[in-house]
Amino acid sequence: KKKALEVRDLNVFFKISTGTVRAVENVDFDLYEGESLGLVGESGCGKTTTALSTMGMLPDNGYIDNGSIKYDNKELANNSEAEWQLYRWNDIAMVFQGAMNALNPVKKISFQIAEAISLHYPKAKDDEIKKRIIELFKLVGLDSSRIDDYPHEFSGGMRQRVMIAMALACNPRILIADEPTTALDVMIQAQIIDLINELRKKISMSMIIITHDLSIISETCDRIAVMYAGNIVELGTVRDVIKNSKHPYTQKLIGAFPNIYGEKKRIESIPGTPPNLLDPPSGCRFHLRCSEAKQICKTEVPKSVDFGNGHYVACHLYGGVTNE
Ligand code: SF4
């Protein structure tokens, strides 16, 4: 399978006044052409930071400390801002969390999408841009007679469709969606999930879906990477990770969503809180909350163990030790 994106040994840190936050550490994953990969975990586990680093959009105090991000075999991790600009939105695009509420209230939707298009195609003529906006509206299931409406004339679900249309404006090969259904009511959530699945069929692009909600992953993704405290702890097909999860954290996370196809109700919460990444725990970062922790878990970082079929688990219950 051809890879759209290859991330290896990625460390992303943030400098703050009290020290260095180790937000993402030793992260490895591939994104294959045409697949949809879910990044799941509690808030603060590094999902969004991982995504932003692949867009070259880390905040000013954030930086890639180590590692490689390859797109089409081209290394991006050392890109200058000018190099990022050539790639960002053209090759990889992102729908940011809550962005649908950040549309400019006094500008028509068509104007806002046109701005995004002309940024990348400065020579595009007005009628070409309009044609593209109509195409994009149709693609995301919006009524194309309404391109000149203002944001307040659209419902939350419609505004989320606009954000997806904007991200697709330059035909990217990779689309990242960060919590695409958060803040929408259940009916509208289902419609956005349907839209994501339709887009997966209609356009051959790769997707990364970021969410804390396993039910969304199970409906929209081929594979899942489960993140905890800046590390990927389990990675594999949706079936392997959900039906045959191996990592104690994944198992707890699934326990928190008893029926992933039904109503979302947290019945079991994971005791304790995620660690402070200014000073992450030694060994396995989950050891303070893990009911199965052993002595070795406190001192040694668990190495990824391959269960076959691309199912990787980083946990001492399954052997494998590294001193990294
Ligand atoms: Fe629990 Fe140890 Fe596995 Fe970490 S390595 S999840 S502490 S058993």
Write a structural description:
The structure is a single chain. This protein has 324 residues and is of the alpha/beta class. The protein contains 10 helices and 14 strands. It has helices at 47-55, 81-87, 109-120, 126-139, 156-167, 186-202, 214-220, 238-243, 248-255, 295-299; strands at 3-16, 19-32, 36-40, 62-71, 74-75, 92-95, 174-178, 206-211, 223-228, 231-237, 301-302, 304-306, 312-314, 321-322. An 8-stranded mixed sheet has the order 6-7-8-3-9-10-13-12, sandwiched between helices. Helix 4 (126-139) packs across helix 5 (156-167). The chain is globular, with a radius of gyration of 20 Å. The two termini are 30 Å apart. 39% of the residues are buried. The model has no long low-confidence stretch (mean pLDDT 92). Iron/sulfur cluster binds next to loops.
